Every structure is written in structure tokens, then in C-alpha cells.
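# step 3/5: fold
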Amino acid sequence: MRAIDPAGAEKTIESRLSALQANMDGLFAQVPFASHSMAPDGTFLSISEVELNWLGCTREELIGKKRFTDFLTEASRRAFAQATRTGAQGIDNLELELMDRSGALRAVSANVSRLSPTPAGLRLVLFDMSMQKRIRERDRIAAIAFESSAGICITDPRGRILQVNQGFRELTGYAADEVKGRDLSFLAVAGKDPLAERAAAVLSKGGHWRGEIVGRYKDGTAASLWMEMTAIADHGEAPIHLVVMFFDITSNMASRAELVRLALYDTLTDLPNRRFLQEQLHHVLSIDARTGAHGALLFIDLDNFKSINDTCGHDVGDQLLVETARRLAHAVRESDTVARLGGDEFVVLLEALPAGEAVAAAEARVVAEKVLMALALPYQLINQEFRCTASIGIKMFTGAESMPDLLQHADLAMYQAKKGGRNSLRFFDPSMQTALLFHVAMERDIDFAVKCNELQIFFQPQVVRTGAIVGAEVLLRWHHAERGFVPPADFIPLAEETDLILTIGYWVLEAACLQLKAWQDDPCAAHLTLSVNASARQFLQTDFVERVTQIVQRHQIDPAMLKLEITESVLLNLGDARAKMASLRALGVGFSIDDFGTGYSSLSRLTELPLDQLKIDQAFVHKIAADAPDLNIIQAIVGLAHSLGLEVIAEGVETEEQKTFLEEHGCAIFQGFLFSPAVTIDAFNGLLRGGARALPGQRKSPSMLGLDHGPLHEEVVGVRGFEPPASTSRT
């Protein structure tokens, strides 16, 4: 027997194993699936052409250089390590994600076997599972979708229900066995939608349908449903199933209706808004243009809404607007449209008025007068009674007019009604357009006048019965470069419509305090008080007290010589007025109620305010010896003032008869043409030098700076611009 060489035997075995391995690698390289062998350290020993194509690499890049795990995702790397760590001889169907050099993923199923006893490498056979994974994922998604919140049912080729999902059962309230075998007609409200016919049509044509239907649930509840039907065909392309999916869109419909309401209706009053009105007006104009019918626009503006809103708060203002809307809706015809444009502006669109322009206009007037009567009734708000009348502009039309012109012309007519005394109506007249252009030009010129110092302040003396001058009222004048003297009544109301009145008001106050400082340093004029009108808009500013205080302190004047004249309209918000007046009274500034008797003040309001003076309005003074009722009013005002410890001044005194009557009834201070019109500072100083003297015991009554329209017939004497500080010459 021949002896066996152990070393040689081992080499022979290894040689045979290597040859066998090489043969196997050759075989695996030719199979139509991926495979590779790997060394114990994980590097590639061999790899098939299929797997090379998957990875996008060459053999030279992989053999002995790269590990298989380099091409696995992190999760697959952990799964592979866990599976091969057990030492099992074989692993079947290990699911992994293979990543090529570009980062693209491929789902694979790996069968793993060992090349030889441990330690040894591994051989992997990989199958592409991408298609199977997509199918599996699609089936999973379909299963989830089928059990989604949407209602889904599947029918047979005849449209009979085979299966429903949980969403169907929850939405409709029907159990599965209650609907199996039925067609879809039971889902629709009777007569509202032919669902069964729609299903048959989709099945016969193998098509698709989607749309909105009115459905009814098991409990009888009607709902808006969005439904989609899709026919599913077999391989022969004959429809074999119908998949029906539907969603309850009732809430969406409600939201859509709410969006429409928000877009077309006013949120406060629920009246149609400007957009709705424009659409309706466009529709009416197109009809009238064809038929020749008449219509009318009523532009309505509340007369003193702003005062109530500013003094009593926006909550009260909103309540008033809601009540106004209710009254308007009841005052007009059912066929008419009432809209709120914004703020306190409303429009009524009258349609299909009687034939004939005169008759149609008469009908429009009847409706407008009914509106005026309805709005003039007292408003009961926050346990108080308010009155808020309206001014109405009317524009007739026949369909030939443009929509913007109609609104503008009705608006112009409304302003004419307001200028005419309020609580009235006016029809549009072409001359109003001319007035509008003048109005616009005046606004522009006022702005220019403020910026370019065209405004001037004049001084009207205030005298006692002896004729001695004890003070003056500051009055504003404007000498226009082209128009000449512009009466205050022509520009002050325009300024009050804008913030210009604030700029003008504080400019006047600065100028008045500058003049007071000049008088204060002059023994001949140191006793003079100076009254300045404060507009309601100025007084209502939150920083009014602060601004006045700063101006007084900046000019270092004696505040007791300054008197602020306010109108009764600022007293509507008594708490605010009392607080502001108390603050300035503590500083030393005095207050006078201007135009007393023409507003809405009550005795109780006056007793709560730190007043110094009541001013009798010139409207009463001018009727002395002509109107007994007005004489009684004057006597009452004087008596009221004396009972409250207030001094009385009468403005607009033009005759000795008026002065005598006022003296006899206790009025001690006068102002008017009988003594002097408003004059420049130089002319005033001349009057002062001619006979001014302080009366014994004459107190220095505090006063307030403001604006005054002044008598319309007042003559301007010595026109000269006030340009602080040069014009504040001393006596």
C-alpha cells in the first residue's frame, strides 16, 4: 500500500474545490438571474452579468474590492447581517433593497448558501421583486382606499351592489346586507337624479361619470354628494364591475354659500353690499335699455351718525346701523333693493317704476319720503334715545346712463339735501356736477392754502356795556390768490370733512398763543382774553389735551387768558368731554359754549362741566324785536347762565336796540358789527389804543381757541396775512 502524503492530499482537495467553485461561478454567470459569491470578509469573489448590470459596475471595480453590503440600504444591511450571523447553511427569500451606483433602489429576494464549511464565503442568488412589490403596494393602497372615509360600492355588470366599504356604511347608515343586490337608485332623492340610469350608461359604454347629486341617507337626511362612477373591464374589455365612490360635500356647499354671502352681503347689516348692488344695477339697466322702463337710485346718508359713533362708541354706532337697515327694508317695496355701501351710506334701487318720467319721479319721491319718516323716528339704544335723520339724493334713469355716473349723481344730490338743511331729499340736477367740480377744486386749494400760509387770523373785539375791549375772538380768514376773499362758510365745512381741520386748528392755536404772549408783555393789553373755536373733530382727538397743553407751555402764556369755545355737539359723550375739560381747566384754560341753544345740550350736562361762559348765538340776537319766542329763549339762556355762575356773551350784535335788550336782561359782554367786525392785528391794536381800558374787578376769564365760520355778511377790514411771529406786533 502506497503511503498518503497529507500535505499533498490537502492541496489536491483545495485544487478540486477551486475547480468546482470556478465551474459553479461559470454556471451562475450564465443563468438569467443575478448571483454572486463573496469571501468571508464580504468582498465579491464572482458576480453574474445580470447583477453587474443592476449595479452599473464592472467586474474590475468589484472583485476583491467592494463588499455586497456596500450596495444595500441601511435597513437591508442590518437585515442581511442578522440573517447570516446565525451560521445556517441556507437562507431563503430574504427581502432586501439593492442600491446601484446612481442611488436607484431595486427590491430583491435573496437565497443565501455557504460555499464551504466555516470559515467560508457565501453564494447569493437574487431575484428582482420590483414588479411584485409594486403590485403588492398597489393592492395595499387599494385596500386602504376601499376602507377610507369615502363611500365606496362595487356593482356587478347589471349595476347591482356586490360590496360596500365601511365609509359607505358610516355615511349612509345602511348595513352591507341591506344594500347588496339593490341598484343605486335608493341613494338619490326621488326624482332628483336618475342614478340607476347613469350607472347603466357607464357600464354599457365602459366609461366614467362624475358629478354632484342630492342623496338621501337611511334616516331620511338629504345631503349633497359628489359621486364618481368608473367601469372596470375584463381582459375582453367587457365591463364586469362598476366602482362608485362618493363624498358628502354638504358642509362644502354651506361654506360655498357662506363665501357667496360674504362676497355679496354686508356682514353687519346682512344687506346687499356694493358689489351686489352693482351687479343688480347692471342687470336693471340692461332691461330698462330694452324696455324703456324707469328706475331710480336713492343715495341715503345719515345726518349725525358720526357724532353718535364718535361720542358713544362703535358698538352703539353698529346698533344704529343695524336698526337703520331694518327700517329701510320695511320702508321700500318688496321688489326694491336696499344695499349698504359702507359706513353710514345706503342705497335703494327702485325698479320698474310707472311709465312716464314725471309719474316715475313722483313714485320715487313717495318712497324717499317714507324712508325719511322711518329714519327720523327716535332710536332706542343702550337705554337712551337718539335721533339720527337722513339726507337722500335721487337720480332717475332709463337704462341709457352709465353705472358710475348714476352713483355719482345720486351722491351729489344727497350732498345738496344735506346742505339744504338735512332730513330732506333732492333730485339730481346737472348744475350739481358743476358744484362738485368746484368742491374738488376748493379742497385742493385749501390744502395749498395751509401749506403756503394763505390763511390769516383776524380778531373781533369783545366789549362790555361801556365799550371797553376786554377780549377778542380769533376768526379765520382766507384771501385766495385768484378768488379773493373766500368766506369761512365756503371752506371750513370742507376742511372739517378731512384731516385738514386738525392742521388748521392747531395752527390757529399756535398763532393765538403767540399773540397772547405779545399782549401779556404789554401793560395796555395784558388784561385781554382771547377766544378760539375748537372744532368737534379736533376736540375728539385722543391727544387734544396734550397738544393744547404743549402749545400753552411752549409760548409761556397765562392760560387764564385763553378761552376755548366748543359747540354742544362735543358734549354727546359727556364722560370724555368732562375729563378733557377738567384736565385743561386744571391748567387754567377756560371754556365757553358757542352757539348755545342751537344744539342738543341739556341742563344736567351743563351742570357737570367746568364752564366759564355761555355764548348766545347770533341767530337769536338777530331776531330781537321781531320774534317773541326767540326773546324768551334769550331770557332763558341768560337766566340759566347766571344760575350756574357763568358769564354771558352775545355774538352778532349789530344794533343799539339789540344791545339795549341784552343789557336789560343781564348780558354783560358783546361782540358784533355794532362795535367792530373782525380785523387784522394792527387794526385791533388801533382800536385798543383808541379806548381800551380794563373795568374794575373785571376777572380774567379763561378761554379756548378754535374756528368760527363768521357772519356771512361780514366785511373784511385791513386784509393782512398772519405770519407768526412777525405779525404779532405789540400795541
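# step 4/5: annotate
The first helix runs from residue 6 to 30.
# step 5/5: archive (pending)
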